[in-house]
Amino acid sequence: MEQKLRWGVLGCATIAIHSVIPGIRASKTGEVAAIASRDVHKAQEKAEQLEIPKAYGSYEELLHDPDIDAVYIPLPNHLHLEWTIRAAEAGKHVLCEKPIALNADQARRMVEACAKAGVKLAEAYMYRHHPRYERIREIVQSGEIGTVRGIHGTFSFNNAGDKNNVRYRRDWGGGSIYDVGCYPISAARYILGSEPEAATVHAFLSPEHDNVDMMASGLIEFPDSVALTFDCAMWAAFRNTLEILGTDGRIEVPSAFIGDPNFIVHTQEGQREEEMPKLNAYALQADNMAQAIWGEQPLLLNPDDAILNMQVIDACLASAYERRRVAIT
Questions:
Q1: pTM of the predicted protein model
Q2: Which residues are the active-site residues?
Q3: What protein family is recorded (predicted)?
């Protein structure tokens, strides 16, 4: 019988139900063996709906199940620290939804707890698992578009009418930087292969939404005078784009994080569309986790990357709320 990684899911979040659970099922390596909610009836309802064998009325019960190898944590951001550490202590490998924590210090504690327990920890940036980002970086490093002068990224959507959404609780890690601004930050760090030096962010803080940043516009300074400019929003029209500007050309990614994986390369000779396979990035993410656990390949996103990304997010939030440029050390 083919080996399968047995997953448990802590919570019934939309991302879990509509994206990650189907992704695990579409993977070569995984199966969803259990789901938990603080409301046992909700867990049972989702288990029946999704044909998941086990349903638990508490997260603790799932963590005590000896038949679970790894857990996926899609809980609100302020719960990531507690349940990652508790999962690690229970001997479960952890795939934690982005952003991994509320700050870099929490992320560091999570990484240390998982290392101590001897379990794998990965942050769930599914977009990075699609091979197009490896291809984009390959083109950049080849020099085809010349020297990179800057990157611009966007990720916005409008969900402002849902006032009870967890994204609109500041103490729970709400706000657009945490929710979607983290994507262009992560992408720029990967493409440039370096860490930022400073961040300056201006934000629209909405009193109607617990003063979280409903939109933010940022400038992230990288070495060699390269910058990421980005904007992110939860109260604006939808888009998710990325542009990498070089001295001799540019790469345009119309659907940078979700949607059509194709992208366009503009050079002095003209333009071409790079056609990429339409793969399920959530399935690729699940396979990478399983293969890392089984020692077949390393994690694509190692835990230290999560700490580094949180350092940038910390600086962005400090800049937005304090209206100042923040150095990143």
A1: 0.96
A2: 98
A3: Belongs to the Gfo/Idh/MocA family.
